[in-house]
């Protein structure tokens, strides 16, 4: 667009926010489980039906403090994140009633307890504002950079003593995989838009197609600095799926999507294209396709910077030209078969001398990979350029912008009434810059197809009584229709010209709407009430079932008009399952296999859709009986406490243990949990059989023997063995992960400590991983033997264990020797830590 230096404004990167659906890294982002997944040290967090944007509940945050760390906190699992991936953070938010007209929120990410990384600010609806009368959104992005041991917490907080509501919270990767769009493998020529003489047509039938569109931002500040600006300098959102529906309902049939080179690449890594850049364009393609809209991909900011602000470097720099050429080739290669894209707009308002000569170079590069798409070429803004002329390619859309006269259309203060006529407006077009070169007086037409990629007036022209901005808009569109000129209104959301007067806005979420403009657009665009989208079964597969296990699934549908009625159109469901008219498939399958069938749905208006479905029913898994894996027991000593845990594999927990024959040594007992414990009172060898029974009644037996040694004579002397250190290398451990323990034993006595040892009974559900060379492990205990230690000598060692179940892990280590010990109070230490 044209800009006056007196009020030139920076242009932001627009990134749409997707609803919190699949891929959400927050458990229960909709707060429907009845369990609060968020915590706080300074705020009161409650699940509250009043706080719900959707569903049965949302989260209410009430605090006497402000600032992100004092609000609601959610701990992210770093195992679910990937370094270098861009993540979107967001939630629906609303201020509680009766606590004020507005407040500011903070959305941040706390890494290892440090100062929060700010995620909101200019990236949020109302610049992070929250209001009592409507739901808005808080939103931000973060390029993942972390180590597996880092702690990451999302934080949302508000103003002190101003409770607010949160719902539909999400953290999602912005990747092409998450968006799920796949470029078509073949070109659908029946929906392709192309130039035919001086008009646009669609398909082989050459159905006339006139684009009546609106501009939408999807780009950043446009700066070309090294290093690139940080992500929190970007305005990373703009429109969503609902915006595209509103654009359709306002009568538009196309969107000029305004891009920047650094959506795809940075100047520090030219030609390395970002996954999130493709993901954003993919998402807009999906939204456009869902609403029957076409897209013009507009390179609003080419490598080097924004052209419209008298930027002169691009035309003389071969490196910048090469980057633009490579980028357009990459875009064309990816989307060459996507007919939702109507055209490629090479550069917005190029400030380049001999522009059409270079434009032909760009066209040739694109045509090498895409011979079908329209290419939009705008008039040059360079004062020395020779102007527009017909290019060699016949599939070109010639483009000018229309803010005429700029001193009135682009001014907030010159609000003299528009008194022009339709005939005068048409004449201005005939004589317009770029247009006049192709005007044919004899036919009162232009000899090439034209697009007016931007047109409009400042919002005051619509809002101030008597200025007649709506009349100007009516004359503009009637004149465009007369000459068959496609066009895109400037702008959907922009502070000066927008339907919504803000960079960041969604339908029904913004207070600054150019009401008269919005009301006039359906009639100006000749929009008819949009028909409901066609009925479409969105379920393409069902979750797998299992023989003998209760099954339930709900098939889904979009479009059409409720209520819907479901039926089986072909094939058969797995035996034991039934399809209800409400689309619920329930029952208990009785036969294993893969089943193919076709479902049909009919809506209120009797429109239908069918969908082929495949479902697999697995056989009941083979249930193995338990298998006792303990085949031997350590020897015991008369008068010394004994403890050993029996082990079993297979089967179905929980297990029950018992003695099936024979007897344990006198003084020892076997618990139902499989622990042999007690203090034997007589020496000898005992043989007995143990039995384990699992929860399904299956069992196994094992014959064992145990030797009971006579107690050694009482130790003499004084070694005073001390366990001076025994601690864990971390404060908690995940089940299935290893954790280290450090111990130091020392002879504090006067005599030689003979056969000095560190002894640690092995806890249940815990296995040995590794440790010092002096250590020998068994299923019962770990013994680390250090020989004889003289007075004052010590040993400092590590061992590593792995807990198998969540809960609490408690272990006790003991320092001992064969020399007497007059001070037993320092022999042992115990460590307890949580297992997650």
How does this model look, in words?
The chain is mainly β and 836 residues long. It folds into five domains: 43-174, Jelly Rolls (Sandwich), CATH 2.60.120.260; 179-524, Glycosidases (TIM Barrel); 536-618, Immunoglobulins (Immunoglobulin-like), CATH 2.60.40.10; 627-709, Immunoglobulins (Immunoglobulin-like), CATH 2.60.40; 721-835, ntegrin, alpha v. Chain A, domain 3 (Immunoglobulin-like), CATH 2.60.40.1510. Helices cover 12% and strands 33% of the residues. It is elongated and about 125 Å long. Residues 1-21, 121-126 and 226-235 have low confidence and may be disordered. Residues 814-828 have a biased composition (Low complexity). Residues 23-154 form the CBM-cenC domain. Residues 814-836 are annotated as: Disordered.
The total count of strands amounts to 51
**Top CATH class of the largest domain:** Alpha Beta
CATH-defined superfamily of the largest domain: Glycosidases
The radius of gyration over CA amounts to 37 Å
Domain DUF11: 728-833
Region (Disordered): 814-836
Domain CBM-cenC: 23-154
Signal peptide: 1-22
